[in-house]
Amino acid sequence: MALEQAEVYARRRARAMERMGAGSVGIWMAPPERVRNHDVDHPYRQTSELLYLSGCAEPEAVLVLCPDLSEGERSILFVRPRDTEREIWYGRRLGPARAREYYGVDTTYDINEIDQVILTLLGGAERLFLRMGLEPAQDQRALKWLEQVKRKRRNGVITPSQIIDPAQILDEMRLIKDPTEMTWMRKAAAINIAAHRAAMSAAQPEMYEYELAALLHYHYSRQGCTGTAYQSIVGGGDNATILHYTENQDPLKDGELVLIDAGCEWNYYASDITRTFPVNGRFSPQQRDVYTIVLNALDAAIAQCKPGNRIQDVHEAALRRLTEGLVALRVLEGDIDELIVARAYETFYMHRTSHWLGLDVHDAGGYHDAQGRPRILRPGMVLTVEPGLYFHAYHNVTTADPFQGIGIRIEDNILITENGYENLTLHTPRTPDEIEAACTS
Ligand code: GLY
Ligand code: MN
Ligand code: MN
Question: What residues does ligand 1 touch, defined as CB less than 6 Å away?
């Protein structure tokens, strides 16, 4: 990895250790490789915390941070050893010697040495930062280390008596993206914008949903993406009213809309765009009306994206526009404020408007502060804004019948800046006219 890149990770580790404080040790373990079926594994994905602190995507890696050690000794990475036979079968390995230079950590060890080395590192620490509950085998392993190190107490050695979830410190750090993260998220967004454009241009009646999914994935892979950020959603007609529809098996029909919610990862950073467009390239007047309501909600919600506003303000702006739109369509009737209080929109809009975006598509970080108040937006935060209206088959509101089978969501990715926001996905066609032009280009 480039020196300047390694320095970015070193700075993050230094900040994490500052927050952990003296008397702490932190351990981050790579998740196990998982069998998909006989002799075949699922594609491997490193945990986001380990990526955030080291950029190390290798299976079996373990990162240990020890703020009490002197500078130049405090970050320790355990990796798989070189192994000619395993490398011939399964791929090259850096091994500990090269890993130290590559990742810019202070010390590296062969992962097979961890059971001895970790006891030395844990001795003297009062608190252990460790994520528990995800992998029972890893929990057992760590608890065994704690039990073993405890035996040193009779010699007067302090050993950890507290286990703390590292999310407590890392989530807050990950909420505010640094310049490297912003660059990578812009890149993920740019690739995804081109992929969505290509899908609009290619779509036509009687194509299958999976053909559009394949086209998106082709664009992601061709650009060197590390993967998709989540399972792609390509839903034609009333499949668009299923929020997490991922079967993508049906034909696209003339006169219907298709909703695509898909995103790539660039260096493991997610993009998450949704666009809804007519399969035949022309909105019907009714589709255009509903689309315009959702677009107005998107614009109103994005306008709330600025430092000092609450994330709840973004949601509330969307709710108001969607409720006004449902009244204009005569689906709902009554006073807008009263309808909002009664959550009358919920039949047609049942999800939140935003989530944090970063290494995880639903990224780390609470939506409330430590006092339980809705989070205040600050420069460097990245969130999605994704209002929608879904006229699904399950509701029993007869005034909605004319719209049944229409599902529309529009989703952008917003970086909060000093003065407002940067819409990372702005150049994805979004107005009805832009979309019709992209569909026929
Ligand atoms: N694609 C997942 C989401 O929009 O949250
Ligand atoms: Mn999405
Ligand atoms: Mn999203």
Answer: 230, 261, 272, 355, 361, 386, 411
Residue range of the domain that includes 86: 3-173
**Do the Cβ atoms of 65 and 17 come closer than 8 Å?**
yes
Per residue in 43-83, pLDDT (tens digit) is 999 999 999 999 999 999 999 999 999 999 999 999 999 99
Give the integer Cα–Cα distance in Å for 411 and 406: 17
**In terms of domains, do 167 and 108 share one?**
yes
Instruction: For residue 383, count other CB atoms closer than 10 A to its CB.
Output: 26
User: Does residue 379 sit in the same domain as residue 276?
Assistant: yes
Residues 154 and 201 in one domain: no
pLDDT at res. 221: 98
Whichever domain contains 336, its CATH number is 3.90.230.10
> Looking only at Cα atoms, what is the longest distance across the chain?
80
Please tell me the predicted confidence (pLDDT) of residue 396: 81
Residues 273 and 353 grouped into a single domain: yes
* Distance between CA atoms of residues 29 and 61, nearest Å: 6
Q: Tens of pLDDT along 259-313?
A: 999 999 999 999 999 999 999 999 999 999 999 999 999 999 999 999 999 999 9
Total domains in the fold of the chain: 2
> Which positions of the chain have pLDDT values less than 50?
none
The atom of ligand 1 lying closest to the CA of 262 is 1
Domain closes at, from 173, 205, 228: 173
Please give the pLDDT value at position 393.
85
The DSSP symbol for 364 reads: S
Judgement on whether residues 300 and 402 belong to the same structural domain of the protein: yes
**Catalytic (active-site) positions:** 39, 244, 261, 272, 351, 355, 362, 386, 390, 409, 411
